[in-house]
Design a protein that fits this description.
Membrane topology: Single-pass type I membrane protein; Single-pass membrane protein
Keywords: Autophagy, Cytoplasmic vesicle, Disulfide bond, Golgi apparatus, Membrane, Mitochondrion, Signal, Transmembrane, Transmembrane helix
GO biological process, one term: autophagy
Family: Belongs to the ATG27 family.
CATH architecture of the largest domain: Distorted Sandwich
Order of helices and strands: HEEEHEEEEEEEEEEHHHH
CATH class of the largest domain: Mainly Beta
Radius of gyration: 40 Å
Strand content: 25-35%
CATH topology of the largest domain: Cation-dependent Mannose-6-phosphate Receptor, Chain A
Shape: elongated
Distance between the termini: 55 Å
Subcellular location: Cytoplasmic vesicle membrane; Golgi apparatus membrane; Mitochondrion membrane
Structural class: alpha+beta
Mean pLDDT: 73
Helix content: 10-25%
């Protein structure tokens, strides 16, 4: 029972639901949102610096220096730079653009562009012949979720060398930081570019859900419920219910995480059941042994596959052929005449308590 309870608790813990996820059509228009019982207001963050940031770092790669620069826009697509060739900047519709370049030790030399990666945006990518990429589906698809005290805002839609790209803005609550703040790069791997952003606006406000008992229908003095006034035709929508276009999109990473957790839960539960069955088979408890023995005694048909003594004797008579050069020595008869009718049982008597170690062997 203890093992079964532990197994059940493990399955429940592995099958726990994932964090609440919400889709946002626009960061500027939907900068106030709720995730579970937490309410966030990132409007001061998105409106600062006119919604544009440049995050860059440089590392030595002898004999050159390699520089990585991210241009981030959270209020719309990036504007084209007329003084830069098109092949050295991200295509139209990019919200986040990564450019990698390197230079030699002389700073006065112009850097050489190595990579131009549209990380996120609503792109319209085409091959040189004008055909579209068959594995790219345009769409920004901004999602937000709150996990482990970190607010994740993800922007999808990037594409580079047959690989999808996305940005993960990780907002961390910090009441002591001086506003406005800027993001910093964390890591980039397998098409995911993460940024750490410390701000006091990432500290969510806990929302207390009212109980049903406190929600009462207004009544008049006579005790008759008063009709509720209809909502205004052009009035603002209720904050508790997001628009229809914000309810259906789910972050693909969350779906993949749920699938992996489900598969892991099924695997661990199946392995645990098999382990319990193997343990019960090799080390059965006494109660289980008594139950199995009683069941077998009441159902003798289960033992029909066992070969009887008559069949064993018949097989022995059929195979009892002596070659000319062999001599058979009987062990239970002294004279040759008595040995012709000797019968040797094929199994020892169950009445004998001692264990026969050399039964059936010639001496």
């Amino acid at each position: 029972m203890i093992l079964a309870a532990a197994l059940l608790a493990l399955c429940w813990s592995l099958a726990a639901a994932a964090a609440d996820v919400r889709s946002l059509d626009s960061l500027a228009e939907h900068c106030r949102f709720s995730l579970g019982n937490q309410r966030f207001n990132l409007c001061p963050v998105f409106e600062a610096n006119e919604g544009n940031w440049v995050v860059e770092y440089e590392v030595p790669t002898p004999p050159t220096f390699t520089k990585t620069s991210y241009t981030i826009s959270l209020r719309g697509a990036l504007q084209k730079n007329e003084g830069v060739p098109d092949h050295e900047q991200c295509p139209d519709g990019s919200w986040i653009c990564m450019i990698t370049s390197n230079r030699r030790l002389f700073e006065e030399e112009d850097p050489r562009v190595l990579q131009v990666i549209p990380v996120a945006g609503e792109l319209s990518l085409k091959h040189r012949d004008g055909s579209r990429y068959h594995d790219y589906f345009p769409g920004l698809n901004i999602t937000a979720d709150f996990r482990r005290d970190v607010l994740h805002v993800r922007l999808h839609g990037g594409y580079y060398v047959y690989q999808h790209q996305k940005a993960d803005l990780q907002f961390i609550c910090d009441q002591d930081v001086e506003e406005p703040t800027n993001p910093i790069t964390s890591w980039a791997w397998n098409g995911t570019h993460t940024f750490s952003w410390r701000t006091k606006h990432a500290c969510g406000e806990t929302v207390v859900t009212p109980t049903t008992s406190s929600e009462q229908t207004p009544t008049s003095d006579s005790g008759v419920p008063e009709p509720t006034s209809p909502p205004e035709e052009n009035g603002p929508p209720d904050d508790s219910e997001p628009p229809d276009n914000e309810q259906n999109l789910i972050d693909p990473d969350v779906l993949a995480g749920r699938s992996r957790r489900s598969m892991m839960t099924i695997f661990i539960c199946s392995a645990s059941v098999v382990a319990i069955l193997v343990y019960a088979l090799y080390f059965p408890p006494r109660r289980l042994q008594h139950l199995v023995t009683s069941y077998v005694k009441t159902h003798p048909s289960l033992l029909r596959a066992r070969v009887g003594e008559r069949v064993l004797v018949r097989w022995a008579d059929e195979d009892f052929v002596l070659d000319g050069g062999e001599e058979d020595v009987m062990v239970n008869a002294d004279e040759q005449f008595d040995a012709l009718d000797e019968q040797i049982p094929l199994k020892p008597s169950p009445r004998r308590s001692s264990v026969l170690t050399n039964y059936g062997s010639a001496r």
